[in-house]
Amino acid sequence: MIERTDADSIATLRLAHGKASAMDIELVDGIARAFAEVAADESIRVAILTGTGSIFSAGVDLFRLTDGGRAYAEQFVPALSRMLLEVFALPKPLVVAANGHAIAGGCILTLAGDYRLMAQGNGRIGMPELLVGVPFPPSVLEAVRFVVPPQHLQALIYSGRTLPPDDALRVGLVDEVVAIDELPARASAVARQLASVPAQAFAATKRQLRDAAISRAKHYAAEFDGDVRELWSAPETHAHIRDYLARTVKK
After folding, report:
1. Burial class of residue 47 (count of CB atoms within 10 Å of its CB; 0-12, 13-18, 19+)
2. What pLDDT shows up at residue 250?
3. How many domains does the chain have?
């Protein structure tokens, strides 16, 4: 599900959950646990997050969501929010190496990184949540707002467009685009550079940079989480999702 390898004070976490690392409740809980363990591991200075094959993550497992119905959705949405906050608030540098498609939740995971690499090629990145028919949980929206430049924020969210790597670089979704065969080495090089920064200074600075977004996420959660959970759980939403899947998923 999540493979971890440690070397030279760098923990590499690899998503390996089915062919697309689609996010079900088991995967999001596993990601949250993995990042909590990295945060607590004093031998680790930096984390790298990457995927398997040609897909980083296809986002939420929509088939599992609709099959599970309301009971599953009401458990999944809070778990998704907890996971994203765990990743976003990691008190250590996080390098994300998106090896391919990073869609919806996969895009959000990418945005949670401190330095975001994407492989050149056919992979796409973006946030089609509104096309799917679900709203953003507050923690997710604040992570997006933290990274995406204001002039691109609404257009990307409202349109649900997914972008090729070079366009993603242009609008600020990623920091660098590299050849796929150079991605692991480049991620390691960035990680080593970040590992050279004194750990306490980095953690304090990252906390100052991100604390306002985290505070807003927690504040808005009290106001909006109930409505968000209800929309994710509603039969009408699941009917729209099934229609979306029928139109977009290759048979």
Report:
1. buried
2. 65
3. 1
Calpha distance 94→42 (Å, rounded): 15
Q: What is the pTM of this model?
A: 0.96
222 occurs within a structural domain: no
Residue 232 lies in a domain: no
Query: Which uninterrupted H or E stretch holds 17?
Result: none
* Inside any domain, residue 224: no
| CA dist., res. 148 & res. 158, Å (int) | 13
Low-confidence ranges of the chain (pLDDT < 50): 251
Strands of the chain (E only): list them.
Answer: 2-7, 10-15, 46-50, 55-57, 94-98, 101-103, 115-119, 125-126, 162-163, 176-178
Place of tokens 């309301």: 70
Whole domain around residue 145: which residue ranges? 2-180
Q: Residue 82 is part of a domain; what is its CATH number?
A: 3.90.226.10
Pairing of strands 176-178, 125-126: unpaired
Length of the chain: 251
Residue type, 149: P
Whole-number pLDDT of residue 251:
46
Those residues whose C-beta lies under 8 Å from the C-beta of residue 22, and which sit 6 or more positions away, are: 57, 58, 59, 60, 61, 62, 64
Alpha-carbon span 42 to 199, nearest angstrom: 10
Helix, strand, or coil here: 181? helix
- Identify the pLDDT of residue 116: 99
